[in-house]
Amino acid sequence: MKAILLGICSSFFFAFTFVLNRSMELSGGSWLWSASLRYFFMLPFLFLIVFGRKGWQPLLEEMKQHPKQWVLWGTIGFGLFYAPICFAGAYGPGWLVSATWQITILSGSLLVPFFYEEKQTENGVIKVKGKIPMKGLFMSFIIIAGVALMQIEHATTLSLKPVLLCTIPIIIASFAYPLGNRKMMELSGKKIDVFQRVLGMTICSMPFWILLALIALFTSGAPSRTQTIQSFIIAICSGVIATLLFFQATTLVQHDMAKLSAVEATQSIQVVFVLFGEIMFLHTPLPTAISLIGILLVVVGLVLHSYITRTKRHVKVGKAPASTKRFST
């Protein structure tokens, strides 16, 4: 339950990304600056946190052992996650970007067979290939149905081109984010903590962000003061606070793929946060009765997803050992 609560808290701070990215787009800011500035601002804060916890040297040694993997998965987990999100924000409102992002719930579940999870047996703990959590996957469809219902009347007012330019990049991002996160957890294990891992991935994705910044500088000039301030807020709220909360939640359940998918499913609640954020700050119209039903479906799907995963976990670790002991000789 602690991991689920951390996931919900992270989704609140992640919501700042969609609201402020849309605000920057409406004011004429380049999506390239919106993407790169966030990670430039994140870097010094993360470094101070890790250095203050005396974790810099262990992180540096870990990065030296696997430099190529760190650059690869750091760029995929952060670069191919946030750049497409910002690109999508240039072609669709925040609610559409946030709603489409919920496909990461399915993406996270579909990635399970590509990883191994720990299982307790009579001979001790072994690693087995993960299986797609079908019950959790079904609950993910309920969440996505709620998202679709919540946005359906808005989507019908858009032409095909902006919908495709908005959704395709987010589909890419929805696989890149959990893939990069899980690969780094698999690579580093318990040798470094969540703060070190986020800093390491940020450092190793810097070549990507510098490249985007150079392209932005030559194509649209320097960022405006407003875009810089809003990017700074995103860096703190979403880049530092939300990322650390989410990574800490996934770390707590990293060896249980079903619970890991449940934590990733908590990100669906950010649709609600984004909706109210746009109402308050961007004067988006109030949700209709259909949208409210959609919000209810999202919340119900999230609760059921967490309940089923928690029940499965209790059965696995609670009753199984007694049964195993009884039949062993």
Descriptive notes:
- This protein is mostly helical and 329 residues long.
- It has one domain.
- 79% of the residues lie in helices and 4% in strands.
- It is built from 14 helices and 2 strands.
- It has a two-stranded antiparallel ribbon with strand order 1-2.
- A hairpin with a 2-residue loop joins β1 and β2 (124-129).
- α5 packs antiparallel against α13 (270-281).
- The two termini are 36 Å apart.
- The model is unreliable at 317-329 (pLDDT under 50).
- InterPro entries: EmrE.
- Keywords: Membrane, Transmembrane, Transmembrane helix.
- Pfam families: EmrE.
- The chain crosses the membrane at residues 31-51, 71-92, 98-116, 136-152, 158-177, 198-220, 232-253, 265-283, 289-308.
- This is Drug/metabolite transporter (DMT)-like permease.
Protein structure class:
mainly alpha
Total number of β-strand segments?
2
Largest sheet: 2 strands, antiparallel
Instruction: Identify the strand order in the major beta sheet.
Output: 1-2
Helical percentage: over 70%
Total of DSSP H or I helical runs spanning 4+ residues: 14
Number of domains: 1
- N- to C-terminal distance: 36 Å
Order of helices and strands: HHHHHHEEHHHHHHHH
Which regions are unreliable across 5 or more consecutive residues at pLDDT < 50? 317-329
* Residue fraction in strands: under 5%
Radius of gyration: 20 Å
Average residue-wise pLDDT: 80
Shape: globular
